[in-house]
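Researcher: Checking consistency across runs. Here is Melanoma inhibitory activity protein 2 again:
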Amino acid sequence: MSRILDQRILLLLISFSASVQSTKVLSEWKKCGDPECEKAMSRVQAITDYLGPDCRYLNFKTGEEIMVYSKLSRENENLWTGSKGKDFGYFPRDTVKVEEVFIGEEVEVLTKETDFLCLHEDKNVFE
């Protein structure tokens, strides 16, 4: 009985560790096309294949189009946020080229903890 309890405690600790890692704040600030970050900022095209390190990242193949909704700023300006079909996530800005810009002026806003959760099929995923 104690062996089963030990295994459950170990699984709980592993699960908690993975959850903390997947909700790590990547930046305190982001730039958007509007204060609510609802408007698409631009349309970009992938210039290389990209496979992200965890579920918060958008995976894509060369040539795919991505709609950009925000860009992390200040301490981590390399990551942008966008969607491809129903998939949504972060990706490095140097993996895409800008095809079309939709907004003229970017607005800088604070990020939220929910910006860094894994989202799959309209559900939060806690690993």
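Researcher: Does this match what you'd expect to see?
Model: One thing to look at in this run: The longest strand covers residues 65-73.
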